[in-house]
Amino acid sequence: MTEQAAGVDLHAALEGEACVLHPGERALVPTGIALEIPPGYEAQVRPRSGLALRHGISLVNSPGTIDADYRGEVGVILINHGNEPFVIENGERIAQLVFARYERARFVEVEELGETERGAGGFGHTGR
Prior knowledge:
Elements: E1 8-11, E2 19-21, E3 26-34, E4 41-46, H1 49-55, E5 57-59, E6 64-66, E7 73-80, E8 86-88, E9 93-101
Antiparallel strand pairs: 1-9, 2-8, 3-7, 4-6, 4-9, 5-7
Cofactor: Mg(2+)
Domain dUTPase-like: 2-127
Protein name: Deoxyuridine 5'-triphosphate nucleotidohydrolase
C-alpha cells in the first residue's frame, strides 16, 4: 500500500457469501491469483499485523512458502485466535506476500560437527 512496503496485499476472492471464521476455526481462503516466480526465489505468505492485533487473525503456517515451480491458485490458511467470529468479505485484504531469494543447501553427512561457543544449547539456554 506504500512505496517502501516489503509486502503486497493478498485479497480474499470469495464466490458468493462472506466467510465467517469462528474462534479457533481455520479456513483456506482463495485469492484468485496464481504466480510464476523466478527460480531462486520464493513468495512468503505472512499475516497482516492489523488483523492480528485487532481480531486475532493469523496464519496457521506462517510464513507459508510458495515455491517457484507452483502454478496453482494462491490460498491463505487463516485462523481465528480471537474471541469473536470474524467475517471475511470478498476483496478484503487477508495477508501479505513477500518475495525472498533463497539458496539451495547441499547436505554432507559427517561423523562430528565443528565446535562453537554455543554448542548444542537452545530453547532459551541463555536465559530470559
